[in-house]
Write a structure and sequence with these properties.
Length: 395
């Protein structure tokens, strides 16, 4: 395969990331606004996001088990994306709590299943050039940025009930992006995948010093994000911010995320992943306190949004550095599944539940202060770690 042909092939992967996260950029910031406009309270909004995060726990392993020996993974990816779009279309008709929960459950089951499969396809396509992954994945952040920063103004103009109709073209584009991969072949199977040791490896390394504390910190950090993912838009609107401002604030967070993802390797090499993680957790505590107390001030909210560079981008990069040490080689897949289940799954469910409870008690201020409290607990827990169980500055 020539260089030009190889680059053309990899552009297809960037296009899929762009479409996937563009749809997420419409869904994540504004689903709460849509449900609120239907007349439902905080518990329903929190329940919706709880189901969403719960599907992140069960969907990837179920999908992987169903397609482990599939000779046509590209076709499975396409079918999963078609099912995602079809299930999301249910939001155009769902109005009751039960209907909304059922649509969310089926939609989340497929949407959260296809990305782990596609990540494996991307790494297989890159082969020894895995260091180029960031240059492909960054298109996902660009897609999220463009949509999240513009859909608030669209909803202001067209109304909250237009939300599912505005999202459907993005899911149709995702199907189109998956179509380009329909003939993809299965990746080469590693020894861990062929001899059934992946689960045993995860179980063995679960007992390694530092792993359980690290996973618990990741869970608490994600739990602290609950108010942000569930009620950030509604909290800002309640403080008087319009849809355009909300969209720009979401966009600011993703913009600094893109910039810091590129700089994270240099920062980790200079300061070390453990020190940076501690700094990022502390910055996140400050971010949630400021968001809770000063949502009516647009300049302060832009400053708080810029902290997403550390509370997400650098923190995530540090987590990946730590995971590479805790789960090396063939154990990486098992380790990533463990982290995904704890952080995005379990932490997401707990964060949605906690933020919904606090929202009904004291609105956005209570929800974000609770997030700050949980994140403070993560900060303390990480500060008490055994320094011998963490990785060095570089390597």
């Amino acid at each position: 395969m020539g260089i030009a042909e190889g680059r053309s092939r990899l552009r297809k992967f960037g296009f899929f990331y762009f479409c996937y996260y563009a749809a997420l950029g419409a869904y994540t910031p504004y689903i709460g606004r849509f449900v609120d406009a239907l007349g439902h309270g905080g518990y329903v909004v929190g329940g919706m996001l709880g189901i969403w995060y719960g599907s992140r726990i069960v969907a990837p392993p179920l999908w992987n088990a169903a397609n482990a020996r599939n000779p046509r993974p590209g076709l499975a990816l396409l079918l999963g994306c078609i099912a995602t779009a079809a299930c999301f279309a249910g939001f155009t008709m769902a109005r009751t709590t039960v209907a909304l929960f059922l649509v969310m459950a089926t939609f989340g089951l497929f949407y959260n299943a296809v990305m782990p499969q596609f990540e494996a396809m991307t790494l297989a396509a890159l082969g020894p050039r895995s260091h180029e992954y960031g240059r492909i994945r960054v298109w996902g952040s660009i897609g999220f940025l463009l949509v999240a920063s513009s859909y608030g103004a669209l909803l202001d103009r067209l109304g909250e009930r237009s939300f599912p109709w505005l999202c459907l073209p993005l899911f149709a584009a995702l199907v189109g992006a998956a179509w380009l991969h329909r003939r993809a072949e299965p990746p080469a199977r590693t020894r861990a995948a062929t001899d059934g040791q992946a689960l045993d490896d995860a179980g063995h390394l679960w007992k390694r010093p530092g792993v359980r504390r690290f996973l618990l910190v990741a869970l608490l950090m994600q739990c602290g994000f609950g108010a942000f993912y569930v009620f950030y838009t509604l909290h800002l609107q309640a403080a008087g911010q319009d849809g355009t401002a909300v969209g720009l604030l979401w966009g600011t967070g993703v913009l600094v995320e893109i910039a810091l993802f590129w700089q994270a390797p240099r920062l980790i090499a200079r300061f070390g992943a453990p020190a940076l993680m501690s700094f990022c957790i502390g910055v996140t505590v400050l971010r949630w306190i400021v968001t809770a107390l000063y949502a009516g001030s647009l300049p302060i909210m832009f400053a708080a949004a810029s902290l997403h560079a550390f509370s997400f981008a650098v923190f995530h990069a540090c987590c990946m550095r730590q995971m590479a040490a805790f789960f090396p080689g063939d154990r990486a897949a098992a380790g990533q599944g463990l982290l995904y289940g704890f952080s995005s799954g379990g932490g997401g469910v707990l964060g949605a539940a906690l933020s919904a409870w606090m929202w009904d008690i004291g609105g956005g201020r209570a929800a974000f202060l609770a997030g700050a409290g949980v994140t403070t607990l993560a900060w303390i827990l990480y500060a008490l770690r055994d320094r011998r169980t963490t990785v060095p500055a570089a390597g």
